[in-house]
Design brief:
heterotetramer, A alpha+beta (about 550), B alpha/beta (about 375), C mainly alpha (about 325), D mainly alpha (about 325), B: about 375 residues, alpha/beta, 8-stranded mixed sheet, 14 helices, about 35% helix, disordered N terminus, D: about 325 residues, mainly alpha, about 65% helix
Chain lengths: ~550, ~375, ~325, ~325
């Protein structure tokens, strides 16, 4: 499923903690399905002796670590709670996913021993790892997996997103389950690495208890005080022998970027997740801290302006072209990227196999923009008026004012407004907006974004394709990408998707989100998870951590 | 305890044993720097007070009598005060003392009784504590002894059921009762000198007499010297040994009480006496007020300060201020044309002849206020 | 005294009832409803209807208010639609934080404001008085959300004496608890110092002009004794009234500090609940904050009658 | 201007027979004006008073004439000069969007002056009238008004403002003023009621009532002059709190719609995303502006009060 369309905002606690309604409920993190043709990563310059996040020397057992996250979650039920990046980090701590995406981008078995498709990839058989028990001692078996899957299918939150993927789930053995899909789903293993891949104990599932999670993960719950802390302790009979190294962990949600950075620098927390480029710039050259940026693998979250193609004047393609040409993206990113964020005028990051050489996205050209405005103005009552809005966040507010002044130069009268979260999401879903700032599309496999991009989900009073653009060529490309197992054909299909988006312009791209996890030198090995088959996992991506391999140096 | 508590060791001989006067004030000046210039409230006053004797200080509002009493004690606060002159109290010059040393004198040797009992007692503190605090902190009594002394004090000032009264708050007592408490507080630590600043002004006449008798009793019982400051000649008439009349910050006449009433020399004193309503006069006789108003103490005054309002005024008075001259044993006055002297009568006759308003008002016979007289001749009370 | 407390109790009940109605209506005026917050984009009409029924939001406003009030009397303030946490549980987290924040910040403010006011009142318009008055204006124009980050920058990040965020409960030891509360309390105290200083200074100057102060001096009592035992009490009335109001409003007013230092107090959770249209939490928090305000100020009124015997008859 | 101890003042102004209580009727106030005029250092209101008054008038003029002044457009973003300190071109430097801070503070002062003064003045009128009435004539009017003030004060202002803002889009200066008045009026009501209560028991009011003065005359001529000093000093604190409160609302995104600037949202912007360390000027200039405005106002108020209140500390 697509990565959560989570909102990047300083008032995350205001919004995400309570609502995270933005997330489709399914947040995927995972790895690209193809061997990543990896360009130079945007990781921080190599440390003196070691790469950041990779432990030096022999792991030390014991001790606890405090981790600062950018938002609080609203519960531990995969079928009812919104798992944004903090949600997924919590889940990785207490539960396990069936598959985990490897460094090479492919979804490798984790809790599942194997995930095997039939010939035409419509039926996937998942065989569970034997001898695994939940924190409450109950065994992990096919019955538990089936119950989990069915709960996800029927839930109001995740049901709709799963409808296009999972059709039926049937137990075929004590530890094996067969999942039949509505159509061939090439990237099915990737889905099992997202929110739907978590398996929770029957006791928690039946009681639908979202405050007392029982999983198979490396740590078990001690205490959860929302907006204050989550304390967990080591799971002594974890199925991965010898792990985890730490005795316990404390997560502290700190919504204020500045406060979270100050907490790290003052030692109140040992490790933090952030997406604030200023924090990255401040700590990048500081030897006391290890910085791990988003790997240049799969699809990172994109910052962009979403235009509502079903409402005037943004329904007029000429207006959308004028808006695109008028934004000087380089200047915008220079102003707000603190030298960290890079402009990225495509759905896919540079070096991704799905990124065409030139997707034809309109570059900054003020003269052309003015000319297009003049051309479109007559059929919009003489002048183009756009209302551009964002949620309450100082960086976004400044960004929006900058864009407004750029559009103003091109002759577009722009009004800027600030909207609080619930109304913001409500307007997105019900189409009552012209231009909003937005951030989503982070995923390890392009198919996870199908539900956001597909014209099939663009109609009706409530549409998951917020931009509501109806472009048949885009649909065919998405379909081929979803069902063909031939990687070359898949690459060409998603390149076509990127080209179509550049033509239709529902999204005015700006830059890749600058997710980063920063740990003091006390915290070792926080980005070095090895999978059961010995290969390395992708690790930190789009703000999600896995604390299993961490140990404490002092 | 902090350094202030180190008590300066001042020795005050017992009252009986000192020779010479209890209190000697020599040329005392107290003025205030204000926006309108230097207000000379007390402009050179000298007086002496023997043990057990009472001095009455009389004068209109603005004559500086209250400032005099406060200056003697050294209690005039404020950063804009200019003081000079000597105040020698049983051999010690109070004006030369530091604040810490003065604090030794206040309460123990010299005490002050205020005019308005309503504002001079702390409204939110029980009467008991306002008495016992000086007993415990200054006289060094322990809690029980202080309480017993307080009860005895209240009894001695004539307050019924003193035990309950200790628990009362000031607003729960009558005016007279509060004034008695004030006096109890003042005499609590056995001072040698009592300064009573218009102690009865706030009270009605019947209570006035009781309070004045009480003061006299306390004075004789404790062999205290007392200065009784008032604007009411009736108060000082038969309760003081000597009387000093002040006008515009200066002493204008001073004499033993009987001598002052018998041989008044200063026209101002005479005018004061005449303005006291007599029982003999018929009701509703118009009161004889002194026309005009006291001078502005900030202005530089030339000549006799009473000149503008004096019926005897002559050229000489306006040009040069008369010095204090003696008129017999212990009687001083400050006038060129004193009452009862030949020049005085001539001056008055001359002024009446030249129709000087002050003189006419002075000599006019008192007339009844027609409007207030009922047809049957009886005044409407 | 009984009559005094009786009338106060009646007033307390009436005011709390008004506040509960006010809070309930206001929150239901908010556009959108919790289903949107829970379901998010998957908010299909069918799913919404099911959820509304589950949460009992399909009943009329009066019915909802009725059930809410009845529950309160049974001690059940309801639970959050989003986190399924009971409001009482959320309060058990929020109230200790707010109480400690308020107590520490107001005590700090008083410890600074009272001596300053005493010295300034003793010598009005002199050097100290002028400096103190001007510096209090500087504090007044320094908003909490500037003071907070500055304090953190100096004491947490550079000097590393205290944690930058977070609240260590008393159970984790007094030291860590106080350390985690000191910076937010100082940020809050800065605002209160000015109010307390000005109120107390004005009253002190008025009291110091009363005759009973000269009377006390004429008894030879030391200035320190007179100030503490005679002058403070009659001058503290408006200070107390000011403290009552400032403490009362801090229950929700401290939200800025709570956001900056990530302390989930009443203000913090109220704001979050409003954004999430979490009706029961909003109503619960608003009611508790309002009742706290009323109780604090009634306490102050009672204290005033104790301090000022003249008022007792009223 | 040093003052006389009260008993001296009494004596030297004998004929005016000022009553002994600190409060004075209006006629006493008029008599205070010295013959030597208002301006002289000695007797008048003093130089500092007039300097402060000049400064406040200057600030108001700046705000009113903002659009005419030779300063840059407040919302113009000059990308060549982002986060720059004071330079020739930008006297007070620029913010993180390259906007000129001098013009933003001046235009911002428009909003903040209105937000500071309007609700407090409205509060003084509403709260004052109610306070005078409740304080003077206790009884049913007092209990009702008191209960209403309690409800308004007890109710979390935060909830009210947030709900009203989401419901009553878009946020305008007028709406903010109305909301702040709801907060200011009950506070001022309580202060004025308390002062009225304490004064109405004083003798000079009882005396005035005894002479058959009509209540309105009594309230205006006797009580008001004594309540004004306390109310003014509290109101001035209110102005400061209102201006800063607008900043806290900007912190929550509930203040004036962007890009119009107010002192509050400039300070708020100056504290975000380590602007505090990067470019402290953004937060510094508006805070300095508020500080200077307040100091001037309060010095004037203190000067006026001590001028009309001739008493000296006796300790």
């Amino acid at each position: 499923m697509a990565d959560s369309a989570d909102r990047y905002d300083r008032r995350a606690f205001l919004t995400r903690g309570a609502t995270t309604a933005a997330a489709v409920g399914l947040a995927g993190v995972g790895l690209p399905s193809l061997l990543a043709a990896c360009g130079s990563g945007t990781t921080a310059p190599p440390h003196a002796s070691s790469t950041p996040g990779i432990g030096i020397g022999t792991p030390k057992r014991g001790g606890t670590v405090t981790i600062g996250l950018n938002s609080e979650i609203d519960g531990f039920l995969p079928s009812a709670s919104h798992f944004d990046n903090s949600g997924l980090t919590y889940a990785n701590t207490i539960f396990d996913t069936l598959t985990v995406v490897g460094a090479d981008g492919s979804a490798k078995p984790y809790l599942a021993q194997s995930v095997v498709p039939n010939t035409d990839m419509t039926v996937w058989t998942i065989t569970l790892r034997p001898g695994v028990t939940f924190h409450d001692g109950s065994p992990l078996n096919a019955d538990v997996l089936v119950a989990n899957m069915q709960a996800l299918q029927t839930s109001a939150l995740t049901g709709q997103a799963l409808r296009g993927v999972v059709d039926t789930v049937a137990k075929t053995g004590d530890l094996s389950v067969a999942v039949t899909c509505a159509e061939p789903i090439v990237a099915f293993p990737h889905y099992l690495a997202t929110q739907v891949g978590y398996v929770i104990a029957l006791a928690q599932l039946e009681s639908q208890n979202s405050t007392k999670p029982i999983g198979t993960g490396p740590f078990s719950l001690v205490e959860w005080v929302p907006n204050d802390h989550l304390a967990v302790t080591r799971n002594h009979n974890y199925w991965r022998s010898g792990l985890p190294y730490l005795d316990g962990l404390t997560y502290r949600p700190i919504s204020e970027d500045q406060s979270r950075e100050n907490s790290l620098r003052s030692g109140t927390i040992d490790l933090m997740v952030t997406r604030d480029p200023d924090a990255i710039r401040d700590l990048r050259d500081n030897a006391d801290y290890q910085l791990v940026l988003n790997p240049n693998v799969g699809q990172g979250d994109m910052d962009f302006v979403i235009l509502n193609t079903s409402v005037a004047p943004t329904s007029d393609i000429v207006v959308r072209q004028a808006l695109a040409h008028a934004i000087n993206v380089d200047e915008l990113v220079k102003l707000f990227g603190a030298g960290i964020a890079k402009p990225n005028l495509s759905l896919f990051p540079p070096g991704s196999p799905y990124r065409p050489a030139d997707n034809g996205y309109p570059t900054y050209d003020l003269a052309k923009a003015k000319q297009l405005v003049a051309q479109a103005a007559p059929n919009h009552g003489g002048s183009i008026k756009i209302s551009l809005a964002t949620i309450t966040d100082p960086r976004l507010l400044n960004e929006v004012q900058a864009i407004a002044s750029m559009w103003g130069l091109a002759g577009i009268q722009t009004t800027v407004s600030e909207i609080e979260q619930v109304t913001f999401i409500d307007n997105l879903v019900t189409g009552q907006f012209q231009a909003y700032t937005d951030e989503m599309f982070g995923a390890t496999d392009p198919d996870l974004n199908y539900v956001w991009l597909s014209p099939t989900t663009a109609n009706g009073p409530i549409a998951l394709n917020f931009a509501r653009n109806k472009d048949d060529a885009l649909e065919t490309a998405l379909q081929t990408g979803r069902t063909t197992s031939d990687q070359a054909v898949r690459a060409k299909a998603y390149q076509q998707v990127d080209k179509r988006l550049a033509q239709d312009l529902p999204y005015l791209w700006a830059s890749l989100a600058t997710w980063c996890s920063i740990g003091s030198n006390v915290v070792q090995n926080f980005n070095n998870l090895t999978l059961p088959d010995g290969s390395k996992a992708l690790g930190f991506s789009n703000g999600v951590l896995d604390p299993t391999p961490v140990w404490r140096k002092d | 305890m902090s350094r202030w508590s180190r008590r300066p060791q001042l020795s005050f001989p017992d009252v009986g044993s000192i020779e010479g006067p209890l209190l000697e004030v020599i040329d005392l000046h107290t003025s205030f720097r204000t926006g309108r210039g230097l207000v000379r409230a007390v402009d050179g006053v000298s007086l002496t007070l023997g043990r057990g004797r009472t001095l009455g200080v009389v004068g209109e509002s603005g004559s500086g009598k209250t400032v005099l009493s406060r200056s003697i004690m050294g209690l005039v606060p404020g950063s804009n005060v200019e003081r000079s002159g000597v105040v020698r109290f049983s051999g010690h010059d109070l004006t030369a003392m530091s604040l810490a040393e003065l604090r030794e004198v206040w309460g123990m040797q010299v005490a002050l009784v205020f005019q308005d009992p309503m504002t001079a007692l702390n409204p939110v503190v029980r009467v008991g504590r306002q008495i016992t605090e000086s007993l415990r902190l200054r006289a060094g009594l322990d809690r029980k002894a202080a309480r017993e002394t307080a009860v005895a004090l209240l009894k001695s000032v004539g307050i019924p059921a003193p035990e309950q009264r200790l628990r009362n708050y000031p607003h729960e007592l009558s005016g007279g009762m509060r004034q008695r408490v004030m006096i109890a507080i003042a005499v609590a630590c056995g001072p040698k000198l009592l300064l009573a600043d218009e102690p009865t002004t706030g009270l009605d006449v019947t209570v006035q007499a009781q309070i004045l008798d009480l003061l006299a009793a306390q004075q004789s019982e404790r062999h205290m010297g007392m200065i009784l400051v008032t604007h009411d000649l009736g108060v000082v008439a038969n309760r003081t040994d000597d009387i000093m009349v002040m006008y515009a910050g200066r002493v204008v006449e001073q004499a033993p009480t009987a001598e002052l009433f018998a041989h008044t020399r200063m026209p101002y004193t005479e005018a004061l006496m005449r303005s006291i309503p007599r029982l003999a006069e018929a009701s509703h006789t118009r009161l004889r007020a002194i026309p005009g108003r006291p001078p502005d103490l900030a202005a530089d005054l030339r000549g006799c300060r009473f000149a503008p309002r004096c019926p005897y005024v002559q050229e000489h008075c306006r040009k040069e201020e008369p010095p204090l001259r003696a008129a017999g044993q212990g009687h001083l006055f400050r006038c060129w044309y004193p009452v009862g002297s030949a020049e005085g009568d001539a001056a008055l006759a001359y002024n009446v002849a030249s129709r000087l308003p002050a003189a006419l008002a002075f000599t006019g016979t008192p007339v009844r206020d027609a409007a207030m007289v009922a047809p049957n001749g009886v005044g409407i009370t | 005294m009984l009559r005094f407390t009786a009338t106060r109790l009646v007033q307390l009940v009436v005011i709390c009832f008004l506040i509960s109605v006010f809070a309930f209506l206001l929150v239901h005026l908010l556009p959108g409803d919790p289903t949107l917050a829970i379901l998010g984009p998957n908010d299909t009409p069918a799913a919404r209807a099911v959820l509304l029924h589950q949460l009992g939001l399909n009943k009329g406003l009066l019915a909802q208010y009725g059930t809410w009030i009845v529950n309160i009397f049974h001690g059940n303030l309801g639970a959050s639609f989003l986190t399924k946490q009971t409001v009482t549980n959320a309060l058990s987290v929020a109230v200790p934080i707010d109480l400690e924040l308020i107590v520490v910040s107001q005590v700090l403010a008083l410890l600074v404001a009272i001596p300053m006011a005493l010295i300034a009142a003793l010598r009005p318009n002199r050097a100290f008085d002028r400096v103190a008055t001007t510096s209090t204006f500087a504090m007044l124009s320094l908003p909490t959300f500037v003071a907070g980050p500055l304090l953190v920058l100096v004491f947490a990040v550079t000097l590393k004496w205290v944690p930058a965020t977070g609240f260590n409960r008393l159970s984790q030891g007094l030291g860590p608890n106080l350390k985690s509360v000191i910076l937010p309390s100082v940020a809050l105290a800065i605002g209160s110092i000015t109010v307390y200083y000005r109120l107390l200074r004005a009253d002190l100057i008025a009291t110091l002009q009363e005759d009973f102060v000269t009377m006390a001096r004429s008894k030879g009592l030391s200035t320190r004794y007179i100030l503490l035992r005679h002058v403070m009490r009659p001058s503290s009335f408006s200070l107390l009234a000011g403290a009552g109001i400032s403490i009362g409003t801090l229950f929700t007013g401290a939200f800025v500090v709570e956001v900056l230092f990530q302390l989930p107090g009443i203000g913090f959770q109220l704001v979050q609940a409003i954004y999430g249209r979490d009706y029961l939490v909003v109503q619960g928090m608003a009611l508790v904050a309002a009742v706290a305000f009323v109780v604090v100020n009634f306490g102050v009124d009672y204290l005033l009658t104790v301090l000022d015997p003249r008022v007792r008859r009223a | 201007m040093p003052e006389l101890p009260s008993y001296v003042a009494l004596e030297s102004e004998s004929t005016l027979a000022l009553d002994s209580t600190p409060g004075m009727g209006v006629q006493a106030l008029q008599s205070r004006l010295p013959a030597s005029g208002l301006f002289s250092r000695k007797g008048g209101l003093g130089l500092t008073f007039w300097i402060c008054l000049g400064w406040v008038v200057f600030m108001i003029l700046l705000a009113v004439l903002a659009s005419v002044l030779p300063i840059k457009a407040p919302n113009f973003q000059d990308y060549s000069a982002v986060n720059v300190g004071p330079t020739a071109r930008h006297l007070l430097g620029t913010d993180d969007l390259g906007r000129d801070l001098l013009s933003r503070v001046i235009f911002g002062s428009r909003v903040s002056l209105v937000i500071g003064f309007a609700p407090i003045l409205a509060g003084l009128v509403i709260g004052g009238a109610a306070g005078l009435l409740a304080g003077y004539r206790s009884g049913p009017a007092d209990t009702v008004l008191n209960a209403v003030s309690f409800v308004l004060l007890a109710f979390p202002a935060l909830l009210a403002i947030m709900v009203i803002e989401t419901f009553w889009k878009p946020v305008s200066l007028f709406k903010l003023t109305v909301m702040f008045t709801f907060v200011a009026a009950p506070l001022l009501f309580r202060v004025i009621r308390a002062t009225t209560l304490s004064f109405s028991s004083r003798e000079f009011v009882v005396a005035a009532r005894a002479t058959g003065a009509k209540t309105s005359r009594l309230l205006l001529r006797e009580l008001l002059p004594n309540i004004v000093p306390a109310a003014v000093s509290f109101a001035l604190i209110g102005v400061a709190i209102a201006i800063v409160l607008e900043g806290s609302l900007a912190f929550l995104g509930l203040s004036i719609g962007l890009p119009t600037s107010s002192l509050g949202n400039i300070i708020n912007d100056g504290v975000n995303s380590n602007n505090l360390t990067l470019n402290p000027f953004i937060a510094l200039w508006p805070s300095l502006y508020i500080f200077l405005l307040l100091t001037a106002l309060n010095l004037m108020a203190d000067r006026l009060r001590s001028y009309f209140d001739l008493r000296e500390v006796t300790l």
